[in-house]
Amino acid sequence: MSGELTRFIHASDFHLEQPLYGLASIPEHLRDLALDAPYLAATRVFDSAILEHVDFIVLSGDLLDPLHAGPRGLAFLLEQFQRLRERGIQVFWAGGRLDSPEAWPATVPLPPNVHLFGSGRLEDRIVERDGEPCAAIVGISWSDRLRVHPSEFRGDASERFKIAVVHGEFDAAALVRQNIQYWALGGEHQRRTLYSTPYAAHYPGSPQGRCGEETGPHGCTLVSVDPDGKTRMQALPTDVLRWHEERIVVSESMTKNDLERVLRDRMQALAAEVGDRALLIRLRLEASGRLAGGLRHSGLADEFAAELRTEYGHRRHPAWIVAIDVEPPSTLPVEWYEEDSILGDFLRSVRSHEQGKAEPLRLSSYLSDEQAAGPFGRALEIADPAARARLMRHAAVLGIDMLRGELANED
Length: 411
Ligand SMILES: [Mn+2]
Description:
The chain is an alpha/beta fold. Helix content is 34%, strand content 23%.
């Protein structure tokens, strides 16, 4: 191994075939960006490789489903690989569930700087820099028929820096026992490091978050290895749209003006950090007290959303409110349950349904036979205990809003 630092980029799960999803609607001015986001983010991965003068790049699968991404996806990858080839950067690619070597069309040859690992057995490659080996890479592409166990990737302590490239779910305990200095893993869309010392096992995540669940920065990882084999990982953000979730507690005493000020302050702070991208923001208001009813039922949340969109959503790097969800507070005052009133009866009934978790709710008894047989009926079969608890919380709060007369008083 030469005395210099070895540097490479690790990326995975481009999913070029998968556009953004989970948005009820997308404003006109963000439509093109949303459509192109997966491609723009993947381009930034290759830009980073060139900008950082890396020695090589490792890709751990699910770059695209060739069939669903179509010619655009294939042409894009070929073009990017060609850019790397012109700069002498090699690519080591282990296919995932979607991009095994069998899925890549045989009529479209890969450039000679790209090595796509086979799916039948482990393959070893040596990477050279200036005629000297700088790393050893062992890899295999995903296959339904063949599951590789980490113990098959054996490194040897006296050997040069060894990288394993593979797609799938792995347990840190099984990986750490092998003599592999860097596990380049793929198959998770959120960035995750299983361990980082003395060796490392890492999922870089997708370069672009696709839906409301994939919040936070997305990108690729720049790995630097010093001559002693010590590894340093650096996250390089590549996402062009970033999903963000912000929780705000709306307290008992808050007025409409107070809340408006809090929302603006929060948006100001988010807009200041947006950087070279757009933010897609879901605000979750945990509401109790005077404002809660109005937020839930008389369009106050929509009113706020519209104002904040006008102010922050049309900038060059917009902070766009996807939705304002109004959630019930996590606990309700105990005395409400004890009230000798219709509300008290209602809350006690909700609580008994909450506690009798095993008992089915039989919501479909409120539907016509025709409704019950269709998708509406299936949607009311609440089997998941967490979903059931959520539903009960919403039911309790709806009852409170209606029976305490807050809706009528709200102005
Ligand atoms: Mn994936």
